[in-house]
């Protein structure tokens, strides 16, 4: 059985759910000292939906030294490879290229380990993407906040805003060298806060947001990152500022001390 036929078999899902694409790395580089951008290209991206920048996706990672044939076979038969949630940073339909940004924290975690060693020709499995998180831009003022895990969704949101949009964006990063060039509207003030130890609880974003003179009119948000920070900001926005939930995208992407599988279990339990 060929690799292609095995992939087609592995892609078979109940209820017509599409199976994984095996994506091939075109290039990988350090965008900043603590962020790696990986660009994928190849025929596996044929039919990739446009307009999904900022959407969630799932990636599944091969073992060290595992070749493509063995990986496809494992997708079909198990055991399942490590699975992690990421964000589509960009998609170029003309050139058939898609990029995902990875927070670089060495070999601590399968995704960071994979990305830190990624080179042209490497591969992973990709499921998704979902729909973008923020698509309606009709507010008078915007509040965007993110730590490194959520910079991609925040950056995409800023880049998609009307060019006359006004607001504030706060990015909490590991070092000042982790600042990125983001094509935000001129009326959105961007602030970079440094938190050298992401594994330590931080109130820097909340402190900053509480100190902002609150604007009049309709406010929309795009806020994501560590769950403890997000929980406090959600309470502030919903309970104190009375923002409607329909105007507030705010999501915990990870939690200090937990791997993704553990964090997802906590989120499901809290939602019950």
From TrEMBL:
<dbReference type="InterPro" id="IPR017938">
    <property type="entry name" value="Riboflavin_synthase-like_b-brl"/>
</dbReference>
<feature type="domain" description="FAD-binding FR-type">
    <location>
        <begin position="18"/>
        <end position="136"/>
    </location>
</feature>
<dbReference type="InterPro" id="IPR013113">
    <property type="entry name" value="SIP_FAD-bd"/>
</dbReference>
<dbReference type="InterPro" id="IPR017927">
    <property type="entry name" value="FAD-bd_FR_type"/>
</dbReference>
<dbReference type="Pfam" id="PF08021">
    <property type="entry name" value="FAD_binding_9"/>
</dbReference>
<protein>
    <submittedName>
        <fullName>Vibriobactin utilization protein ViuB</fullName>
    </submittedName>
</protein>
<dbReference type="InterPro" id="IPR007037">
    <property type="entry name" value="SIP_rossman_dom"/>
</dbReference>
<dbReference type="InterPro" id="IPR039261">
    <property type="entry name" value="FNR_nucleotide-bd"/>
</dbReference>
<keyword id="KW-0614">Plasmid</keyword>
<dbReference type="Pfam" id="PF04954">
    <property type="entry name" value="SIP"/>
</dbReference>
<dbReference type="InterPro" id="IPR039374">
    <property type="entry name" value="SIP_fam"/>
</dbReference>
<comment type="similarity">
    <text>Belongs to the SIP oxidoreductase family.</text>
</comment>
């Amino acid at each position: 059985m060929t690799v292609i036929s095995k992939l087609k078999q592995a892609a078979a899902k109940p209820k017509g759910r599409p199976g994984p694409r095996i994506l091939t790395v075109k290039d990988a580089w350090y965008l900043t000292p603590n962020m790696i951008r990986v660009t994928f290209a190849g025929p596996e991206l044929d039919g990739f939906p446009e307009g999904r920048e900022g959407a969630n996706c799932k990636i599944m990672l091969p073992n060290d030294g595992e070749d493509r044939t063995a990986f496809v076979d494992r997708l079909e038969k198990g055991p399942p490879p490590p699975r992690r949630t990421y964000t589509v940073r960009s998609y170029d339909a003309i050139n058939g290229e898609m990029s995902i940004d990875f927070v670089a924290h060495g070999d601590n975690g399968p995704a960071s380990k994979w990305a830190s060693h990624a080179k042209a020709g490497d591969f992973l499995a990709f499921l998704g993407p979902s729909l973008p998180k923020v698509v309606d831009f009709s507010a008078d003022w915007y509040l965007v906040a993110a730590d490194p895990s959520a910079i991609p969704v925040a950056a995409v949101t800023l880049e998609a805003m009307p060019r006359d949009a006004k607001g504030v964006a706060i990015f909490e990063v590991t070092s000042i060298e982790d600042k990125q060039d983001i094509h935000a509207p001129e009326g959105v003030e961007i602030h970079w806060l440094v938190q050298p130890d992401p594994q330590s609880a931080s109130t820097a974003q909340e402190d900053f947001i509480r100190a902002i003179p609150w604007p009049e009119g309709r406010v929309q948000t795009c806020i994501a990152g560590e769950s403890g920070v997000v929980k406090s900001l959600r309470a502030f926005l919903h309970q104190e500022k009375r923002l409607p939930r329909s105007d507030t995208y705010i999501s915990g992407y990870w939690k200090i001390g937990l791997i993704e599988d553990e964090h997802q279990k906590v989120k499901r339990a809290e939602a019950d």
